[in-house]
Amino acid sequence: MTSSQLPPAFRHPYSFAPAYRKSVAYFSMEFAVDQALKVYSGGLGFLAGSHMKSAFDERQNLIGIGMLWKYGYYDQIRRTDNAMDVQFREKIYGFLQNTGVRFTIDIAGRPVWVEAYYLDPKHFNTVPMFFLTTDVAGNDTDARSISYRLYDADSALKVSQCMVLGLGGAKFLDQINYAPEVYHLNEAHALSAAFHLYQTLGSVEAVRGRMVFTTHTPEEAGNEKHDIGFLQRLGFFGGLPLERVRQIAGVDDSIFNHSLVALRLSRKANGVSKLHGEVSRRMWGSYAGICEITHVTNAQNHGYWADTQLDAARSAADSRTLAARKKAMKQPLFNIIADQVGKLFDPAILTIVWARRFAGYKRPDLLTQDGERFRRLMNNRDYPVQMVWAGKPYPFDEGAVRTFNHLYYLSHLYPRMAVLTGYELALSKALKDGADVWMNTPIVPREASGTSGMTAAMNGAINLSTNDGWICEFAKPDGPDQNAFIVPTPGDADFRNPDTHDREHLYRLLEEDILPMYYDRPEAWRALQLRSMADVNAYFTSARMAREYYERVY
To answer: Which residues contact 519 (CB under 8 A, 6 or more apart)?
Structure first.
């Protein structure tokens, strides 16, 4: 018999706040809750990790369901010439507790054993979390390898990973006799859970009554699709006959679009920024049978990311203490730079950071594409600049790896340019502490939200960004309330060549606005920092986000 309460060993360490008593299971392929637990790749994990922390802070009745990746995403290391390399290394976590729950799911016609590990809230101030693994006794090497690497390049293996998260996660909840009122899919990776729910509850309407879906993809082409027969052979639908699957999912042809089916089987869905919600409604609005799409703007956990001394100076509107503290916060980052690349940075010099997942549309090398202008910027004696890049490409994306290494080789020409490896939570925190300017360069409108600029702003960095994702809701680019520097959205003519348009505006903002203000008008810069910090803390913390999920989605 199922229960609305977790077993005593796994219960929340608090009484639920009255507004948050509805029980929710939050499924995500990755979570970034602490540097010690390497089960994430980037932004999706950072977002999910902050959600788990803020749900804990707000005393919500929510749990997390994820995967225990044996090798994590990968370790970004250096070759003998200091270019980046990829290492897959086993991770061991003494703080995770084996739940003792063990069961099988069928993958490609054979049973695969799954076990679940428990993360106690006391370790990292999260809600109760459970991590599934197939690297267990009773499985052969192929079955064990399903939970080896986050986002494996092999399509059958990646679908199998999604099945463990979805079918396995739903079955785990059955095994512990727990029946949450809401199944929240953070992206469509866990969609197979819907087909398990269908078999448990007996109708599509009952599934829709339980399931909600968060989409993070702003382009239709970026949503995962597979041949429906391929999925059926793998067992993605939990043993349901293919014709019944077609009826449930509304699929007439051979293409199974995971996000579209998630929209059809959920009672509500959300984009992850106001702009992304609008884009999603336009993108999916012509498809039959989809649910309502609202938006909940992504955010990050203030308590985890914000420096307490800097935040106290912000609260007191003490610009001098804020400036002194910000200068001191740079040194840990500069120690990392010295250790990794042998360069000594100066805390008095304006430090610009570009740090996030290395992907083509994010354009990490945008400024360097104009070699002569970049040389003038880096060699400017009147207004000196230090620049830092960091981020992990997808390990099998040769183009992104080449871009990373090109920037590293280019850094040999400039003593105040550094390219760092190992972009995980700890390095991300050091970069945000140490940045004066946080540069963000995605092609508009391809960034669903982005959150790195939020936590940079919490730590006194000023955003320099194209006008995409969350920035559209935050930025005040001019006037007495200015809090950021924004590249204007290209007009119709410039959309054909956005790189040239955006690069020209980035250089203009740097040369004409940012550098003169930082060096010639330090009081104006400090006032800008105070406004930026106040505005980001007013809305872009995940406490607000966690509350809105209960109010708007659950």
So the answer is: 350, 382, 383
